[in-house]
Amino acid sequence: MLQNDVASLWESLKGTASRPERCIWTIDQRINLQDLFAGSSLSGRLEQLRDRSVLLLTKSQLCAALSLIELDGIARRLILCPPDLDPEHIPFVIDTAAVNAAVSDQEAQICGALHADCVFPWSSTIKRGEHVRGKQHATEWILFTSGTTGPPKMVSHSLASLTGAIKTPSFSAQPIVWSTFYDIRRYGGLQIFLRALLWGGSLVLSDAGEPAKDFLARAGSHGVTHMSGTPSHWRRAIMSGAAGRIAPVYVRLSGEIADQGILDSLRVIYPQAKIAHAFASTEAGVGFEVEDGLAGIPASYFSPSAAGVDMKIEDGSLRIRSGRTALGYLGRENGSLVAEDGYVDTGDMLELRDGRYYFVGRRGGVINVGGLKVHPEEVEAVINRHPRVQMSLVKSRKNPVTGAIVVAEIVLKLEPDSNNSTTEAAALKSEILGDCRRALPAYKVPAAIRIVSSLAVTPSGKVARPDA
């Protein structure tokens, strides 16, 4: 296990930064970590940021990445704002996190509106010089939960809790190059950022405005070996027709339910890769990783202290206890997110079938059909097994008799010999409904299926679901 403190992080960088291949690549830049270790991207202002509660409000992932590397152990607290943070919530964040400094690459007028004691404009130019980065603080890292409305929930982590699941990799003669569809200002992306640093590898950052096919081509040009994203990210990558532009040895899915359809599709495209799906949340941390190529979780994972993580099912919900759990919610009267027994209730519902636990959906996302509960994700898993379906979204529609009925939207895989006729579409819908009737109780079977060209995805890479 890696040592999880700032000293070991910088020793890791110091020991491997001399390798010329250790870089962070963006859409238009290349930052060599050797240059960063010998210099600064903060214009030599580390001392002015020492002991501060620093807001990282950035357009650029690179700005966030380099600031995190430089300020951990220097700042008392780092607040990592996600790219989709509503500007109206910035005053709330500043007050709640006691912000008294900020690093930003935003426009000058936006920086001026922060009302922090000091705001440092950031530049991607690395300036060489003497910089003492000795550990002064066990810096508190503040992350935002995804999918919240109203004032954001801010979750407190330490570097130790964030890196608790990162184990020392086995030796590889091939340089390790990580990349991810995630934004590193979210928990899932931050995990990949830290893995790249602590594994002695490089990192290819995505860009919000970059088409999937261009990002994959760019990642491939840098020789990406390890790639992660949500199942929705991977489905969109396959739909782009450019998934074959990368040849990873490791493919990781997290953030959504990984059904057998997407796992099988990735196995066909990347026969040489280890394909894993993982569970993690901002509050509970990384729970587990499944590498056997099958959907669901082996029941053996629920053995006591498996891989340093205790898991149990209570009232159908997955609960996790480990050293990777967040420290708590910031700015709440009761900031604890764990129960008296130390477990975090994830709100993700599971069912045991044939020796494996399967995710069926979120507790708060149920469709009520005449008093009977339907988890949309459970229905989607059945629909996505059809060989012509790329991805699907199951949702509710109001009904005067039952209150709601189940309906589905589906995106089809591109088939060169398909004529996309009305007759063919009707036949496909009939086949999919037949699959649902054979696998699900009648009240869970969609009353209607609509074929669409695409489905919206949230900034965190998940299928955008209607408000419950």
Sequence-ordered SSE layout with sheet pairings:
Elements: H1 6-16, E1 23-25, E2 30-32, H2 33-38, E3 39-40, H3 46-49, E4 53-57, H4 61-71, E5 77-80, H5 90-96, E6 101-104, H6 108-112, E7 118-121, E8 127-128, E9 140-144, E10 154-157, H7 159-163, E11 177-180, H8 187-198, E12 202-204, H9 212-221, E13 226-229, H10 231-240, E14 250-253, H11 260-269, E15 274-281, E16 285-290, E17 297-298, E18 310-314, E19 317-321, E20 328-329, E21 344-353, E22 356-362, E23 367-369, E24 372-374, H12 376-383, E25 389-399, E26 403-412, H13 422-439, E27 448-451
Parallel strand pairs: 1-12, 4-5, 4-6, 5-9, 6-7, 11-12, 11-13, 13-14, 14-15, 26-27
Antiparallel strand pairs: 1-2, 3-8, 9-10, 10-20, 15-16, 17-22, 18-19, 19-21, 21-22, 23-24, 25-26
What is this entry, summarized?
The chain has 468 residues and is of the alpha/beta class.
Strand content: 25-35%
Radius of gyration: 23 Å
Tally of alpha and pi helices: 13
Q: How many individual domains?
A: 2
Categorize the overall geometry: globular
Largest sheet: number of strands, sense, barrel closure: 8 strands, mixed
**Class based on secondary structure composition and strand pairing:** alpha/beta
- DSSP strand tally: 27
**Widest sheet: strand ordering:** 2-1-12-11-13-14-15-16
Name of the CATH first level of the largest domain:
Alpha Beta
Low-confidence stretches: 1-6
CATH fold title of the largest domain = Rossmann fold
Q: What is the first-to-last residue Cα distance?
A: 41 Å
| Helix fraction bin | 25-40%
Q: What is the assigned CATH homologous superfamily of the largest domain? A: ANL, N-terminal domain
CATH architecture of the largest domain: 3-Layer(aba) Sandwich
Averaged pLDDT: 86
